[in-house]
Design brief:
This protein is mostly helical. The chain has 4 helices and no strands.
């Protein structure tokens, strides 16, 4: 180990200031021991440039692995969202189809009832006895069916709006989760980086 001062010159300086040769040599050897001990303690906490480069490469490889994992996670999350959206779309299409079938059935029933009522009205006109009574009944049932159709349409619109709202909230939750994961990974990476620095 190199010393950064001249020990012989220090011994001579101490002798000039009143110390004996033996005292001067003991003081200088004590100083050398103290310096060596301090340097040993400093060297324990230090790393070589090669070790620092190895640690940096390890951290960079960990960061690369985290980036790859984040990309895979992001792709899997988006594919899961897409598949869930497709399922919801299919369910909506099925519900729409069922509702349209129900509306078609109701309309067919209404047409049939209308035709039946028309034939009844014709019979009543020919008989002339209960024409006014059946006419009021016909209009009352027709109004009830129209109200039922209107209520069904409103229920469908409400269900579709609820499903759209739920889909948007799921999208927002997944985006929040993804952002949280990204920031967590960045924090961990910065923590490792700071630890190794």
């Amino acid at each position: 180990r190199k010393l950064f001062f001249d020990t012989h010159a220090l011994v001579c300086l101490l002798e000039e200031n009143g110390f004996t040769t033996q005292q001067s040599e003991i003081i200088v050897s004590a100083l050398v021991k103290i310096m060596n001990t301090n340097l040993d303690m400093i060297y324990k906490d230090m790393v070589t440039k090669v070790q620092q480069e190895i640690a940096l490469q390890q951290i960079m490889s960990h960061i690369g692995g985290v980036k790859k994992d984040m990309i895979i996670l992001e792709k899997s999350e988006f594919s899961a969202l897409r598949s869930e959206n497709e399922k919801i779309k299919l369910e909506l299409l099925q519900i729409k189809k069922q509702v349209m079938d129900e509306i078609t059935k109701v309309r067919a029933d209404n047409k049939l009832n209308l035709n039946l009522e028309k034939s009844r009205v014709k019979e009543l006109v020919s008989s002339g006895v209960t024409f006014v009574f059946n006419t009021f009944t016909y209009f009352d049932t027709h109004a009830q069916q129209d109200r039922a159709l209107t209520q069904t349409d409103r229920k469908i619109d409400t269900e579709v709006a609820g499903l759209k709202t739920m889909l948007e909230s799921h999208k927002l939750d997944n985006i929040k989760y993804l952002a949280g994961s990204v920031f967590t990974c960045l924090t961990v990476a910065l923590g490792f980086y700071r630890l190794w620095m």
